[in-house]
Amino acid sequence: MQIVKSPQEFQQLRKNLQGSIGFVPTMGNLHDGHASLLAKSKSENTITAISIFVNPTQFNNPDDFKHYPRTVEQDLTLAEQLGVDIVFLPTKENMYADDYAYRVFATDSWLTSELESKSRPGHFEGVLTVVMKLFLIIRPTRAYFGEKDYQQYQLIKKMAEAFFLDTTVVGCPPIRNENGLPLSSRNSRFTPEQFKHVQLFPKIFHADLSPEEITAQLIKLGFEVDYIEDYESRRFGAVKFAGVRLIDNVEITT
């Protein structure tokens, strides 16, 4: 497994890579959800690359950025075990030498005005900017994203199409635990007792109830509800518990 630490080093390496390249961008603290994306990449490509970079520009909450779990050595060990060929491990300084002066933003219907866009101002601007940079550095054949972050996946897919990028953006179903909770790096911030309680979130969110009924039940159980809303045959939810944010979405069948 090769570790590359600067955009310039990766761009030089890229000139000599042959065959298709699958890419999984991450912020580290790898779990089974990331492993499933990497497995799909390995099954469909000659080379699989992963990036590990806690991107500061997508955090609208400084406290969230401060406490985001960072486990680089553990991640590198797991990446090697999973058969990753290349790890891109950049720094803020070499990803944002322009000090974030040049950015990518979108104005695309509800995707950029509702849900995460409304609740986390500037979040998707940071996401799209860093993903565009990563795509231009790595030039992947295919890039894999979990559909737990469905709004993000849709925006990245539309961005790649809008700029005629030679990368296919592939959405993959979220990986859930035995109680239906989507796997997330932020889950590691819960105490065992808190983690046991948050298993109630997917149980209620996926129940055959209206958004208003779901909201009421979650509030009774001590969750801080950001939103429970329906858009284009899909239900989206975001809540906080013990200061940790959880999101989920599910397709609605009528």
Q: Would you give an account of this structure?
A:
The structure is a single chain. This protein has 254 residues and is α/β, with parallel strands linked by helices. Helix content is 38%, strand content 20%. It has a six-stranded parallel β-sheet, with helices on both faces. Strand 7 and strand 8 form a beta hairpin. Helix 7 packs across helix 8. The chain is globular and about 55 Å long.
Spatial order of strands in the largest sheet = 1-4-3-2-5-6
Number of strands: 9
Largest sheet: 6 strands, parallel
Poorly predicted runs of 5 or more residues: none
> Kindly, what is the distance between the CA atoms of the first and last residues, rounded to a whole number of angstroms?
47 Å
Provide the helix percentage. Answer: 25-40%
- State which percent range the strand residues make up: 15-25%
Radius of gyration: 18 Å
Structural class: alpha/beta
Shape descriptor reads globular
SSE string, helices as H and strands as E: EHEHEHHEHHHEHEHHHEEE
Average pLDDT: 96
How many helix segments? 11
Oligomer: single chain
Quick overview of this protein structure:
By secondary structure, the chain is an alpha/beta fold. It has eleven helices and nine strands. A hairpin with a 2-residue loop joins strand 8 (234-241) and strand 9.
